[in-house]
Amino acid sequence: MIRDRRNEDLDRLCDLLSELDDQAHVLGTRPPRDWLQEVDAERSWVFDQAPVSAAPTRNVVGHVQIYLPPEARWVHDVAARTGRRVGELLVIGRVFVKPAKHAYGIARYLLKESVKHVETRGSLPVLDPADLALIPPSLCAKLGFRELHTEDHTPTPWPGQSDPQGPMTTDFPLIS
Asked: Among 46, 57, 146, 158, which has the minimal tally of Cβ within 10 Å of its Cβ?
């Protein structure tokens, strides 16, 4: 189940990050705990395999955050190319799941729920290009995210767009 992240979850999440092959590419020299706390997130969720949410458990196997876009050129490029204001974008990032049998399904669930939350707010969900190494590329495509090449990050996936010159319809909002 998805629940709000608690401070007590941070040690477990740092352990999970150490199990990921691409974590060094994403974190650079930042300590995992700092990376998890460096953005002022609107939502920080974990996927906890325990059936109750009374206390943090060692069963936390996934993580996602939703936050306002950073001050970066790619954010302005995405806004311009989508016809949206920067304030209408919400970034989905810090997505990672423990490598295991059901990791793909858990990542899919975390992303789908994040997109629902963002769209409920009337915003456009954008994946943080700095974190893409932790998300299976096939999952991004399956959920309707498309690449948008920008000046300082390429690619920048976002849903519903395959050609940066104009929108296309997608079944992404219909995913239940």
From this structure: 57
